[in-house]
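tokens incoming
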């Protein structure tokens, strides 16, 4: 089992940026990304199969990144170092068939999505091929945290019978890939139970060393338990002061011990300074 790590992302609140949606110019995304096709929608408000737009990559503007994404903006060397240690621990599991990792929490507000993106950044720094799958379909937030946008999300690709290989976008300059969710879904069960999702993820496995799934909180949504059938190992994110001992115990009880990799303590106060 991975030992819990103190991943500290405490920072002064000044300078914290709220990511705003990118404006599209000349039918492209900011940063010069070229896209093909049109962005017309069908009557349901979703792109038709013929009009789905592939976004091969997005270039993230550093001024738009959320301040808690420390491995992407190098804002907290202590926290970046802890993510590096977490990468080493995940690599130690390479002797087992562990490629798909579910990152979840007991409840909202524990920084789970920030941990996913920070871990993706740390893994990419280690020259590993990483795919992040945003499977919190009722409260997607990755694009907001990155200050970025895509023209089509992976649920739309599944809905239109288009391979997810066409929906994974490269996040520049950080080097990991992302299957994003653009807008919240009222009924995510149709996506999460889709045979096409399982088939596409299986097909993508050869292209990546790690696949990270951002999960809804275990005690809030039943979607998280459906996701457990898609992954190899799970990490539980806990933010001190947010999760009570009883809530943590309830969350831990939902895991199969063989599939549980460990706990990440997020935004914890360091026990001592680096000068001591």
């Amino acid at each position: 089992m991975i030992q819990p790590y103190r991943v500290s992302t405490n920072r002064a609140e000044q300078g914290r940026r709220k990511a705003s949606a990118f404006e599209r110019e000349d039918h492209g995304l900011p940063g010069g990304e070229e896209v093909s096709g049109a962005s017309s929608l069908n009557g349901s408000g979703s792109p038709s199969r013929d009009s789905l737009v592939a976004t091969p990559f997005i270039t993230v503007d550093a001024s738009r990144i959320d301040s808690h994404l420390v491995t992407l903006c190098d804002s907290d060397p202590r926290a970046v170092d802890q993510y590096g240690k977490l990468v080493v621990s995940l690599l130690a599991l390479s002797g087992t068939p562990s490629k798909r990792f579910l990152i979840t929490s007991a409840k909202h507000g524990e920084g789970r999505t920030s941990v996913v993106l920070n871990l993706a950044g740390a893994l990419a720094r280690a020259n590993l091929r990483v795919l992040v799958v945003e499977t919190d379909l009722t409260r997607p937030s990755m694009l907001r945290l990155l200050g970025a946008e895509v023209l089509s999300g992976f649920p739309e690709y599944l809905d239109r019978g288009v391979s997810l290989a066409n929906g994974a976008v490269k996040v520049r300059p950080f080097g990991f890939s992302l299957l994003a969710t653009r807008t919240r879904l009222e009924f995510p069960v149709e996506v999460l139970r889709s045979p096409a999702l399982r088939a596409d993820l299986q097909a993508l496995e050869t292209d990546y060393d790690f696949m990270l799934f951002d999960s809804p909180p275990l005690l809030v949504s039943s979607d998280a338990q459906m996701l457990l059938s898609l992954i190899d190992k799970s990490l539980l994110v806990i933010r001190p002061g947010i999760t009570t001992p009883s809530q943590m115990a309830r969350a831990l009880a939902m895991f199969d011990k063989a599939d549980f990799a460990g706990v990440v303590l997020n935004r914890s106060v360091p026990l001592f300074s680096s000068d001591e």
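note: The chain has one domain: 51-266.
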